[in-house]
Amino acid sequence: MPESRPAQPRGFRRLRSFLDAWVNPAFFDFWASRVNRLWSWQRPLARVVGRQQIAADAVTLTLRGNRHCGPVRPGQHINVGAELDGRRVTRCYSPVVNADGTLSISVKKVADGRLSRHLCDGVRVGDVLEIGAAFGDMTLPETVAGAWLFLAAGSGITPLLSLVRDLAARRMPVSVDLMYWAHGEDDLWFADDLRALAARWPAFRVHFFVTRCTPQREDVASGRIDAVALQELVSVLPERRVYACGPTGFVSTAQALLEGSVASFAAEAFSPSDSLPVEDGDVQVHLARRGLTLSLPRASTLLAALEAAGLRPESGCRMGICNTCACGKRSGATRDLLTGELISEPVSSLRLCVNRAASDLVLDL
Ligand SMILES: Cc1cc2nc3c(=O)[nH]c(=O)nc-3n(C[C@H](O)[C@H](O)[C@H](O)COP(=O)(O)OP(=O)(O)OC[C@H]3O[C@@H](n4cnc5c(N)ncnc54)[C@H](O)[C@@H]3O)c2cc1C
Ligand code: FES
Fold first, then answer.
1. pLDDT over 80 (residue 26)
2. Residue 117 three-state SS
């Protein structure tokens, strides 16, 4: 199973922890980065070593990390950050782990998106980006068994492509169907690579769909995800282990169609959704570590409200997956947008990106 980087030897880690007591990381980084922008005492950074336009509105960036970048398993995600207008903006991307240890992220430009526009239009070979630790559970076991079904829509193809390549590197030991939806044929990223993999490995089948135009190629059908396509194209559906990835609406439809009627179902949504009724008014949120009290709207997630108030809490996926934004809640009630639950008890790990304030709060921030 390929991983991007092996763990550091124990002797090296001991020397590092001894030196940690003596070195000021900010001072070291300031001077070291003047020699090489990738040098840092402890920050995981990666240099862009390749850039390829893969569609009119999407690029693949190949990244070579410094020694602080941890291992990444196929199917996992990483937070990628860049300084934009003096502020660090971090979002989450699903890299393909290449044989030479580099990572390739494929990024779709979101029309009014901050980081995706920068990654697609502003970043050049030689630039340096911040990289977070890998996270996510949609990976494959060391010994893979059973029959699998991967469902992807839009940029949701990225972790699933990584898994297909992982299986190909293991000589495709299981039966896999990949169903992949995009707006048009030009938006089907890596279509030729996937066709080549299907031609090479009979146990792997790829089914392409477009939703906003008439398909030109024989192996592309039109239409959205539905029960008929799933029944017609996928043999022994009840035995399948399913991974689905894409925008929230796609993932919820896949879940409604399949959960409970297949061997297992796991999904990750890439785009935000906040479908719960909006609550009016403001609440008082006390940030205990800063000794600061703010009046924040109930209508926004706590992360968005704090950002709008000029603060910069740590964040990454903004979807409740990576835990980067989590902080303690000492008192008050919050609404979890993923479950709809009202939580009135103190918690040690409140994810600011998927919770709204439902009453006055005291946070460990
Ligand atoms: C686990 C995970 C893995 C991801 N992997 C990838 C990947 O491999 N490739 C990739 O291109 N993207 C991926 N994304 C989406 C990515 O993290 C960003 O959300 C996306 O690039 C937009 O960021 P932005 O800063 O440009 O937009 P923002 O400035 O955050 O948002 C601008 C506007 O766009 C909307 N928006 C935000 N994200 C999306 C989206 N994904 N689709 C449509 N509208 C959106 C927002 O609601 C807002 O209105 C992933 C997301 C998650 C949670
Ligand atoms: S930013 Fe990832 S869980 Fe909140």
1. no
2. helix
* Nearest protein CA to atom 36 of ligand 1, as residue: 271
Sign of CA dihedral 356, 360, 364, 365: positive
Report how far apart the first and last C-alpha atoms of the chain are (Å, whole number).
39
Domain edges within the chain: 10-131, 147-269, 282-363
Helix (H, G, I), strand (E, B) or coil at 325: coil
**Alpha carbon distance 321, 91 (integer Å):** 12
pTM: 0.87
Question: Above 90 in pLDDT, residue 362?
Answer: yes
Closest to 69 (Cα-Cα) out of 3, 135, 133, 1: 133
- Substitution site in 80, 301, 317, 338 for ligand 2 pocket (most atoms within 8 Å of beta carbon): 317
pLDDT band at 345 (very low <50, low <70, confident <90, very high): very high
| Fold for the domain defined by 10-131 | Elongation Factor Tu (Ef-tu); domain 3 (2.40.30)
- CATH tag, 147-269: 3.40.50.80
Strand, coil or helix: what is 227?
A: helix
- What H or E segment, with its residue span, contains residue 282? strand 282-287
> For atom 16 of ligand 1, which residue has the closest CA?
92
C-beta separation of 63 from 47 below 8 A: yes
Ligand 1 pocket residue status of 187, Cβ below 6 Å: no
* Rounded average pLDDT over 136-144: 93
Spacing, Cα 152 to ligand 1 middle (Å): 15
Judge contact between 78 and 134, C-beta under 8 A: yes
Residue 355, pLDDT > 70, answer yes
Ligand 1: which atom is nearest the Cα of residue 318? 53
Q: Is the CB of 118 under 6 A from ligand 1?
A: no
CATH number 2.60.40.1930 given to 282-363: no
For residue 116, the ligand 1 atom closest to its alpha carbon is: 26
